[in-house]
Amino acid sequence: MKIILFNNNVLRDGHQSLAATRMRTEQMLPVCESLDNWGFNALETWGGRYY
């Protein structure tokens, strides 16, 4: 059986602009454990290129 890995990029685009310009790192860190426990293979939060 093939394993399917889910990547989530919902936190990109508008959300990244809000987070990057209006939040400090210490305000973002408390949610990291919750995001890690959601079971995604990867979370894309800042955009970028895939190589």
Question: How does the SSE layout of this entry go?
Answer:
Elements: E1 7-8, H1 14-22, H2 25-28, H3 32-37, E2 42-43
Parallel strand pairs: 1-2
List keywords for this structure.
2 strands, 37% helix, two-stranded parallel ribbon, mainly alpha, 51 residues, single chain
Describe the structure.
There is one protein chain. 37% of the residues lie in helices and 8% in strands. The chain is mainly alpha-helical and 51 residues long. The chain has one domain (7-43). Strands 1-2 form a two-stranded parallel sheet. The longest helix is centred in the middle third of the chain and has 9 residues, at 14-22.
> SS-based structural class?
mainly alpha
User: Using DSSP, what is the number of strands?
Assistant: 2
> What is the helix/strand order?
EHHHE
Residue stretches low in confidence (pLDDT < 50, at least 5 long) are: none
Strand order of the largest sheet: 1-2
Largest sheet entry: 2 strands, parallel
Radius of gyration: 13 Å
What's the number of domains? Answer: 1
